[in-house]
Specification:
Blueprint (H helix, E strand, L loop, with lengths): L3 H11 L8 E6 L21 H14 L4 E4 L1 H10 L9 E5 L27 H6 L15 E7 L4 H20 L3 E7 L12 H14 L10 E3 L4 H10 L5 E4 L6 H13 L4 E4 L1 H4 L4 H12 L5 H15 L7 H4 L12
Parallel strand pairs: 1-2, 1-8, 2-3, 3-4, 4-5, 5-6, 6-7, 7-8
Helix pairs in contact: 6-7, 8-10, 8-11, 10-11
Amino acid sequence: MPKVLDQKLAEIHADPSGSKAFLLADAKDADMAFGMAAPGTRSNGSSKTLADYRNAIRAVVRQGLVDLVLMSASSVEQIVIKEGLFRDSPVTPAGRANDTTDIWIIRGSHYAATPSRPFRSATLDHLKHGQLVDDPAAPGPGVDLGLYSLTFSGDTEADLRTLEAFAAFRLEAEQKGFRYFLEVFNPNVAGSVPDSEFGGFLNDHIARSLAGVTSVGRPLFLKIPYNGPAALEELVAYDPHLVVGVLGGSAGTSRDAFQLIAEARRYGARIALLGRKINAAEDQLAFIEHLRSVADGNASPSEAVRSYHGHLQTAGVAPHRSLEDDLMITNTALSYSA
């Protein structure tokens, strides 16, 4: 089945200034970062399981309102390869292609506070085919799209290792017919770059890192923290064909999620990739319906919060917060570990 992601990206490139297309993605790859905490908790406080996490993926795909679902390689194997759930769906599946040390959010550890080091658990062969094959460039039953993540810290040696690993990944992806989108995080080491400089630091790194990459090796789109209107507008204006998306950050309030979509859309982003904001929602499918409404310009953030709470009340689902508290805006998109 034709994928909405490809159709919308083609529309954006055909008319960067006129297209109103906006993509939504559900990032269900947190098991490669948080381990057992990734699925979240139930309303009674008990921990959800991997089975719960994958059932949520299945429900989101069947709903069909997001354009992309990002998963770990093990979830790709189960849901994409073995079950074939995406075969007749307009939703595009993707796999996390690397898991750098700054997203190792492990109980009792401090990995996320030290300069990021490159690492890949998944291989492109396994994401695409589920196993090693003689011709990895051939179409496979898995995914041919993945997320590759970079975190720069301002440390020369650490950032050099990051870029060397990125170069090796691009060459392998080109050889094996694998597409990718690029995630670039804010510096994860406290004090390495002033918070006020995050936007410029990221924008310069993105432009510099991709300047030496020809079209065959460039990402389909970007996934970056929302560092404010000025930084986003600067990046969007620099290259209209470098499609910019924003990441969601930590869960926050419902207003945080809806406001992020509205502001990203207003200042030139074309994609929002939300993981914990969706996964932590009282009703994930209803939450996605309201995200889609804001993304399509059919509701304001505050209207979406009120409508969402109305749905919860009708469905008999207890909200995490009062309506008044859920209308508050907090800053949740600056770092992965926040």
